Amino acid sequence: MNFNSILQEVFQEAKTFPVIGNVASTIPELSTVNPDKFGIHLTTIDGEDFGIGDSNEKFSIQSVSKALTVAMAFTFLDEKIWERVGVEPSGNPFNSLVQLEYEKGIPRNPFINAGALVIADMLVSKLSNPKEDFLGFIRMISGCNTIDFNLKVAQSEKETGFRNAALAHFLKSFGNINNDVETVLDFYFHQCSLEMTCQELAHSFFFFANEGKTRYGQQILTKSQVKRLNALMQTCGFYDESGEFTYKVGLPGKSGIGGGIAALYPKNFVVATWSPRLNEKGNSELGMSALELLTTKTGMSIF
Amino acid sequence: MNFNSILQEVFQEAKTFPVIGNVASTIPELSTVNPDKFGIHLTTIDGEDFGIGDSNEKFSIQSVSKALTVAMAFTFLDEKIWERVGVEPSGNPFNSLVQLEYEKGIPRNPFINAGALVIADMLVSKLSNPKEDFLGFIRMISGCNTIDFNLKVAQSEKETGFRNAALAHFLKSFGNINNDVETVLDFYFHQCSLEMTCQELAHSFFFFANEGKTRYGQQILTKSQVKRLNALMQTCGFYDESGEFTYKVGLPGKSGIGGGIAALYPKNFVVATWSPRLNEKGNSELGMSALELLTTKTGMSIF
Amino acid sequence: MNFNSILQEVFQEAKTFPVIGNVASTIPELSTVNPDKFGIHLTTIDGEDFGIGDSNEKFSIQSVSKALTVAMAFTFLDEKIWERVGVEPSGNPFNSLVQLEYEKGIPRNPFINAGALVIADMLVSKLSNPKEDFLGFIRMISGCNTIDFNLKVAQSEKETGFRNAALAHFLKSFGNINNDVETVLDFYFHQCSLEMTCQELAHSFFFFANEGKTRYGQQILTKSQVKRLNALMQTCGFYDESGEFTYKVGLPGKSGIGGGIAALYPKNFVVATWSPRLNEKGNSELGMSALELLTTKTGMSIF
Amino acid sequence: MNFNSILQEVFQEAKTFPVIGNVASTIPELSTVNPDKFGIHLTTIDGEDFGIGDSNEKFSIQSVSKALTVAMAFTFLDEKIWERVGVEPSGNPFNSLVQLEYEKGIPRNPFINAGALVIADMLVSKLSNPKEDFLGFIRMISGCNTIDFNLKVAQSEKETGFRNAALAHFLKSFGNINNDVETVLDFYFHQCSLEMTCQELAHSFFFFANEGKTRYGQQILTKSQVKRLNALMQTCGFYDESGEFTYKVGLPGKSGIGGGIAALYPKNFVVATWSPRLNEKGNSELGMSALELLTTKTGMSIF
């Protein structure tokens, strides 16, 4: 498979699509990004790298980080995670409180905000220096020591993240947050503010495609654990558009409102895209289209 | 009508009913009250007072205060209130977030917690010293200068009121709270911590029965305004048991999880009951039964 | 009170209001009515009649009939009715299936379609010749032998009433319809097709205002039973606009998508309006406005 | 891979699990089946067959048929299907009406009952003799001419399927059923009454694993179409337990309340299980456990 020319094709073809969607406006600090940035980076299981467009520019990974926090929590707690959060698609928007009320504070899955807050709470409980330790984990799996939080973005979310504050207090009212709400929110806003390039993001997700082993050889999770998290990304990684993404792209992945997507074909490759214009479900319009082109052109999807 | 003997009858008969329900457990400071307290106080439109049982003992009026804050807000804003809160029964529990999500942050009515928080926000905006000014208003309408907040109860709610904090942040995320969430919650927890006896509560509600005029002659609201707030208490005063209360008792009223209820027959009387055991909807079981007996025995209901 | 001149005033003033809303379009046979028809009829407790506008023209009373079927069922079953239907406002549209699913087939109240279908099922079980017997009951309470079903309208509903068929099958699936679904729907579509003038409608509702006794002296229900049904109309008579109607008009009443409304002031009067243009909640826009004017001008509301 | 010994192991181990769940009780004719039946049949992509237990006994495939009707509709309409039904997990029970009300009659996916009824309506519109033609299609893809409807089961569902009748009328009220409700229900109850053995079921699903080609060489769908339907089974095939199944088993599949499950590993194998005891979500408890064992032991899952 000549990924070089395929990425070229995908990139050129995607750029001819009608320009749809807008940059996320809920977080002021994020709204200033150039909406027309577009990058793709693909890393094969053999470690070969293929990048195109703005694939070496940093962006805010936002909710893509949820796959990484759940992986880190999984290293500590394994299946115990599921005592406090489910593995089912929610069928609802990412920031919905409705289901939480009916289901007594147990979020449907760790990729909606409520679930990610519970995972954040688990990490806050487990880690000595939660933010530092998590950052260390990210640098380790990505093999990149320059990855960092964007403190302005974290601060911006803190000042405007009333919906997440509502979710956290709601979870706390059900007893499903053990630490201070403020501490958990602070951790969560920091994890979301992580900045990476497409290449760094692809490298961070490498272990999901490589039976639990990073690009640099560390075994983060077992083969079986990684399969389970991949399955979870497949059914829940794109909020109430997970079915659509699975239907069209056929790869496990995770999106963020910074416009990033990480996806992977187990034992084959990991790919990251970045385009800040979001569709109405909060997923990167162009990123999804590019990935659909990729699996159509290569015939490489898990189904 | 010999209210003295009727209250005797009601009181004795109600005490023979099976003991049902428990004291509210969500606010630690409230959970220590003697569950078997029971008092009734009725004040006629002519100013005659009839009390029985523990009618002169102070209790936490909690959500009964919502009728008083909305009345105070009505003095400032009149029908403008309804730009930010509705007049419809919610058909949902008092602390539900579900409808708020579907209806973009406009609470169904001012008697569910979400609505009362919006009213609290209005008062915080309007009053120079919100808590002091509101307390002054209460003392004025009740003619009782010893009425006060219970700071321990307010503090206890602050420490455990995660659900209300969730509601307030959720409202803020929809732009329906203008002040700091903490300031609004602080006001709200104080208003709920008001302590009154049945007699003081009946006197505070006197103006609702008296075409807007307090027992001491001040015109708080116009005749028409009071009719509208009475109508609102009728359809919404008892959360998702408002229909049941209207069906059985047939008087406008407002309940609180401290076990208090204030109800009134326009141009005839106002009555307050206190019994801390709550049914599953969060309303005083014995208080509702006593009021049903009262309207059955007297034939005095608005229908 | 000079009702003659008051009705004149109300009628003239209401006619100056902006023309809002459209004729119900869901039932083809109903959609042909002249949208600008407008009539009011008021009957005092002493039996005096006051009519204005198109008050002597027949119209389809539709859901106004629900108050009459529940009254008839109440004569047979009294409080047993509430084993199969509730007394709470639904907070949802009249034809919603949502709550029914969450609440296992027990409709919130007898005035939403689901509840009225359960009441229809009760009558079908109790009456030898359900449609004829119900019509006899209506003729008796109204004192008018020419009142009849409109078979074309009933047929039209049958052909297009898929939503009601859905509700009836749904109720049946929960075991809350005992008879054949078709039989119950047939009865229901006939009851809704009843045609009356404003005057006939006011006379039919007379007993609700007169402590259970018709204009012609028959005691249909006890004083206490009638109070309870009035209470129910107050909280539930206008679907998810019941709070608004109570707030603005302050009288128990029942509306229909034919544009009719019947309302009453216990021990004082009963009033019927007809104007086919409906607001978005399915209630007569002009009828509601006229009744608001009436209670504002007379100061006669129950609150 | 020695599937013979693996199936032996899976079968023996699964039989030691605690006996959980009951036979479906909603359809009388189905409730008489022996709850302890248990069979597995696996067919490799090379056409090798491996069966164990009651794998050659006929059972009612029920909702497993939904994957086959959607495949047949896909042959006619391809992506046009999605104008009337979605591709998202519902997050709700299989027979829920709630989402349908909020989403104006467009079912979330073709595997919940509402969606399957819409697919049935499409087939009724497209086929000259809907039931016969569909049966012909099934016999063709399975290579088995003895497969047939069970008319008693179809009749039993017709007599008791009030919930499905409610769904069909509800869809009709939104204009998302074009044919007579009765005709569509009749087709649907017949498709669900199909009886197959595990082997026949595995053979029927063979083309999903074989890039669209049946075991006998007919190309039913293109490679790309089959990928998409497999993706859909992955996210939606097990109702509100789809996430769980994906998480634990990691294969696309479809379950039925007759206790059957068909699942597949693209380009590798197709497997069918039968055990009539259902868990609370309506999926075969033992079947799911057996499939989890199978993918754990073989390491063969798509993730």
Automatic annotation (TrEMBL), chains A, B, C, D:
<comment type="similarity">
    <text>Belongs to the glutaminase family.</text>
</comment>
<protein>
    <recommendedName>
        <fullName>Glutaminase</fullName>
        <ecNumber>3.5.1.2</ecNumber>
    </recommendedName>
</protein>
<dbReference type="Pfam" id="PF04960">
    <property type="entry name" value="Glutaminase"/>
</dbReference>
<feature type="binding site">
    <location>
        <position position="157"/>
    </location>
    <ligand>
        <name>substrate</name>
    </ligand>
</feature>
<dbReference type="GO" id="GO:0004359">
    <property type="term" value="F:glutaminase activity"/>
</dbReference>
<feature type="binding site">
    <location>
        <position position="239"/>
    </location>
    <ligand>
        <name>substrate</name>
    </ligand>
</feature>
<keyword id="KW-0007">Acetylation</keyword>
<comment type="subunit">
    <text>Homotetramer.</text>
</comment>
<dbReference type="GO" id="GO:0006537">
    <property type="term" value="P:glutamate biosynthetic process"/>
</dbReference>
<feature type="binding site">
    <location>
        <position position="63"/>
    </location>
    <ligand>
        <name>substrate</name>
    </ligand>
</feature>
<dbReference type="GO" id="GO:0006543">
    <property type="term" value="P:L-glutamine catabolic process"/>
</dbReference>
<feature type="binding site">
    <location>
        <position position="188"/>
    </location>
    <ligand>
        <name>substrate</name>
    </ligand>
</feature>
<keyword id="KW-0378">Hydrolase</keyword>
<feature type="binding site">
    <location>
        <position position="113"/>
    </location>
    <ligand>
        <name>substrate</name>
    </ligand>
</feature>
<dbReference type="InterPro" id="IPR012338">
    <property type="entry name" value="Beta-lactam/transpept-like"/>
</dbReference>
<feature type="binding site">
    <location>
        <position position="164"/>
    </location>
    <ligand>
        <name>substrate</name>
    </ligand>
</feature>
<dbReference type="InterPro" id="IPR015868">
    <property type="entry name" value="Glutaminase"/>
</dbReference>
